[in-house]
Design goal:
single chain; 3 domains; four-stranded mixed beta sheet; repeat; Smr_dom; Serine Threonine Protein Phosphatase 5, Tetratricopeptide repeat; Smr_dom_sf; mainly alpha; TPR-like_helical_dom_sf; 14 helices; Ribosomal Protein S8, Chain: A, domain 1
Length: about 290
């Protein structure tokens, strides 16, 4: 115990804290601002920790990219001390470590825009597009998505959230009339996506627009163009959007009929039952591999 206290005091003294930061609470705040995670943990072990002390220590770990230590602090915290700020820091740590499953669990306890951004970014980084879409679909009511003119506005969104939202809107045309965020090409015409010109980004260059263009280019049979008079807008052709919806829904319906092809009465009658069974299996395997 004496060695632990001596090591903690030496760790605190080695950082040459100012005189105003000699108190432990002020020292924890000082460590949080500078990302001194080891010193913050040493101070935390020497005091009767409360909510602010745990939050400061978790913030120091997150700032130093020590997401494992931040999540371990959350696990050892009493449930009565956990606040929304604590969960927000933990979800940000999950984004750093790519812990998208843990982030989804914590998101149910603290739903807000910042937490949704972190969880969607973690899912996108892990390649879990379905999980990102499911998470964003639950919290889409917190975002201002559509303008009065029926345009999809991606301003003030992160790149992962913008990509996930565009995928939701495009794929939602297939689920009509059960879709929740459906853009009806029959009534509204072309889908206009406002990506912005990058004036609000820290780098002062467009970040969302290149990502959206790459995403739309990866969707087959989808035609789009940059607005000729406003380069901050991308226009998706309504005819190609309808063609994509018809093609995707046709494939989905036809895929459900694939298991029925294993029955002999759907195959030519001149085949023997053994030949019919083997050919139906090979045809089903080819179709599922092709589509």
């Amino acid at each position: 115990m004496r060695r632990r206290r001596a090591a903690a005091s030496h760790a605190v003294a080695s950082f040459k804290m100012p005189r105003a930061a000699q108190r432990r609470s002020a020292a924890l705040a000082w460590c949080e601002r500078r990302g001194a995670w080891s010193q913050a943990l040493a101070i935390l072990r020497r005091m009767e920790a409360d909510t602010s002390a745990y939050n400061a220590a978790m913030g120091a770990c997150r700032r130093a990219n020590r997401w494992k230590q931040a999540l371990s602090l959350l696990d050892e915290m009493p449930e009565s001390l956990v606040t929304q700020k604590t969960l927000r820091t933990a979800i940000a740590a999950c984004e750093q470590g790519g812990q998208w499953r843990r982030g989804l669990e914590l998101l149910r306890r603290a739903p807000c825009v910042a937490n949704y951004n972190s969880v969607v970014a973690a899912c996108e980084a892990a390649g879990e597009e379905a999980a990102a879409e499911a998470a964003l679909e639950r919290g889409l009511g917190l975002y201002e998505v559509w303008t009065e003119q029926g345009e999809l506005d991606l301003h003030d969104m992160s790149v992962p959230v913008a990509r996930t939202l565009v995928r939701l809107v495009v794929r939602d045309t297939v689920r009509w009339p059960k879709g929740r965020y459906f853009h009806d090409p029959y009534l509204m015409g072309d889908l206009v996506i406002i990506t912005g010109r990058g004036h609000r980004s820290e780098a002062k260059r467009p970040l969302i627009k290149p990502a959206i263009l790459r995403l739309l280019a990866s969707i087959p049979h989808l035609r789009f163009r940059v607005h000729p008079r406003n380069p901050g807008r991308v226009v998706v052709d309504d005819a190609s959007l309808l063609a994509y919806a018809r093609r995707t829904s046709w494939k989905a319906r036809f895929r459900d009929l694939v298991p029925l092809a294993r029955y002999a009465f759907l195959l030519p009658s001149f085949l023997t039952p053994r030949q019919a069974w083997s050919s139906s299996w090979s045809w089903s395997w080819w179709y599922q591999k092709r589509y």
